[in-house]
């Protein structure tokens, strides 16, 4: 019985690029597809660039945009830097560090004023980029973005008696029950694989360091 043995590939191609931020070199993983206006895609807290895999495979988007989804340092395939004793200090994502990541990545890839789109912490970052780096991006899109989101006590996100399944199922509970079950389960799978300290550390930016209750009037939409 004849069978089709032709391999089937995704459109996205993955690579590593070395980014130097605050004197530290980070081996950073990214995937890209499409041609046209560069569009950087930033994932949520405690996750990685796999969240964008369906966007990377969207043929219509790929005709208009060069889609680039990256894993933040310490996330996904972007393992911690070998030149740092990262295990000896608390992981904490700050605004000053996060704002630099897409800017340094764009320069490393030779992108001229790309667009930016992010979700959750990535959505918050869209606002911080618009305020602090308006000349580096032609447009920003914030999904689940807000000026301020107090999170309260986040110690439950890093505790030896609490596994990653807890964090993943919290995210599962936030998803629409009408969304396709296979995609909800895939999202849960991604969240369950983050390093134990990363989700809690990301929420420092989300709930503490990102605060635009004052300063939002400084946005200049003529520039970005």
Number of continuous helical runs: 7
Low-confidence stretches: none
Strand order, main sheet: write it out. Answer: 1-2-4-3-5-6
Instruction: Count every beta strand, where a strand is a DSSP E run of 2 or more residues.
Output: 6
Strand and helix order: EEEHHEHEHEHHH
| Main structural class | alpha/beta
Largest sheet: 6 strands, mixed
Give the assembly state of these chains.
Answer: single chain
Q: Based on Cα principal axes, name the global outline.
A: globular
First-to-last CA distance: 59 Å
Helical residue percent band? 25-40%
Describe it for me?
- This protein is of the alpha/beta class and 224 residues long.
- It is 30% helix and 18% strand.
- It contains seven helices and six strands, in the order βββααβαβαβααα.
- A hairpin with a 2-residue loop joins strand 1 and strand 2 (24-33).
- Helix 5 runs antiparallel to helix 6.
- The longest helix has 14 residues, at 95-108.
- It starts with 12 loop residues before the first strand and ends in a 15-residue tail after the last helix.
- 37% of the residues are buried.
- The mean pLDDT is 93.
Features:
globular; 224 residues; alpha/beta
List the SSEs and their pairings:
Layout: E1 13-21, E2 24-33, E3 37-42, H1 53-56, H2 59-62, E4 65-70, H3 95-108, E5 115-119, H4 121-132, E6 139-143, H5 164-174, H6 181-191, H7 198-209
Parallel strand pairs: 3-4, 3-5, 5-6
Antiparallel strand pairs: 1-2, 2-4
Helix pairs in contact: 5-6
Summarize the structure.
The protein is an alpha/beta fold and 224 residues long. 30% of the residues lie in helices and 18% in strands. Strand 5, helix 4 and strand 6 (139-143) form a beta-alpha-beta unit.
């Amino acid at each position: 019985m004849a069978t089709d043995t032709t391999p089937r590939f995704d459109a996205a191609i993955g690579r590593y690029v070395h980014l130097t931020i605050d004197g530290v070199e980070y081996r950073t993983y990214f995937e890209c597809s499409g041609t046209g206006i560069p569009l950087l895609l930033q994932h949520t807290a405690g996750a990685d660039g796999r969240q964008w895999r369906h966007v990377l495979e969207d043929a219509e988007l790929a005709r208009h945009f060069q889609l680039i989804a990256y894993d933040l340092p310490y996330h996904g395939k972007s393992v911690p830097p070998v030149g740092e004793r990262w295990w000896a200090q608390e992981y904490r994502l700050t605004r000053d560090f996060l704002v630099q990541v897409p800017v340094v990545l764009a320069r490393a890839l030779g992108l001229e004023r790309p667009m930016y789109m992010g979700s959750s912490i990535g959505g918050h970052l869209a606002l911080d980029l618009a305020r602090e780096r308006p000349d580096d991006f032609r447009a920003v899109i914030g999904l689940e973005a807000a000026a301020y989101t107090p999170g309260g006590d986040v110690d439950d996100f890093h505790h030896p008696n609490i596994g990653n399944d807890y964090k993943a199922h919290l995210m599962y509970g936030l998803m629409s029950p009408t969304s396709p079950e296979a995609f909800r389960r895939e999202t849960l799978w991604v969240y369950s694989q983050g390093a134990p300290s990363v989700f809690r550390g990301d929420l420092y930016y989300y709930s503490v360091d990102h605060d635009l209750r004052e300063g939002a009037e400084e946005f200049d939409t003529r520039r970005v």
